[in-house]
């Protein structure tokens, strides 16, 4: 099957990310935590966010989900771009930290 023939290769949207974070299903919760943790890990590696030792993965999930609920007009944007907006706002780097 050609890659363009199936939309399953499309990026998650805010709406689909919320769907994977919704409910008590442990598999969905693990998927939610994994996706948002992946976004946070990449942003930290690129020095776009700065997480200190007191921030845990669950807190990054809370930040992203709150951002999604506070910005319903953006829910159809890509999940990575929404996570970027949420996490850079919540965990900015100081000018010195971005030079490391």
Q: What does this 3D model show about the protein?
A:
This protein has 100 residues and is mostly helical. The chain has a single domain, classed as 10k-s Protein, Hypothetical Protein A, Chain A. Helices cover 54% and strands 0% of the residues. It contains four helices and no strands. The longest helix is centred in the middle third of the chain and has 20 residues. It is globular. The relative contact order is 0.19.
Topology summary:
Blueprint: H1 14-21, H2 26-45, H3 57-70, H4 79-90
Helix pairs in contact: 1-2, 2-3, 2-4, 3-4
Summed up:
By secondary structure, the chain is mainly α. It contains four helices and no strands.
Per DSSP, the total helix count is 4
Q: In CATH, what is the class?
A: Mainly Alpha
Query: What proportion of the residues form beta strands (DSSP E)?
Result: under 5%
Shape: globular
Number of domains: 1
CATH architecture type:
Orthogonal Bundle
What is the C-alpha radius of gyration, as a whole number of Å? 15 Å
List keywords for this structure.
single chain; mainly alpha; 10k-s Protein, Hypothetical Protein A, Chain A; 4 helices; 0% strand
């Amino acid at each position: 099957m050609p890659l363009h023939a199936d939309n399953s290769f499309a990026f998650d949207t805010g709406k689909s990310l919320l769907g994977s974070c919704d409910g008590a299903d442990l598999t969905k919760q693990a998927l939610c935590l994994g996706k948002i943790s992946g976004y946070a890990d990449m942003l930290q590696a690129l020095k776009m966010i700065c997480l200190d030792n007191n921030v845990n993965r669950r807190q990054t999930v809370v930040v992203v989900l709150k951002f999604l609920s506070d910005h319903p007009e953006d829910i159809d944007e890509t999940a990575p771009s929404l996570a970027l907006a949420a996490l850079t706002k919540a965990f900015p780097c100081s000018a010195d930290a971005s030079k490391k």
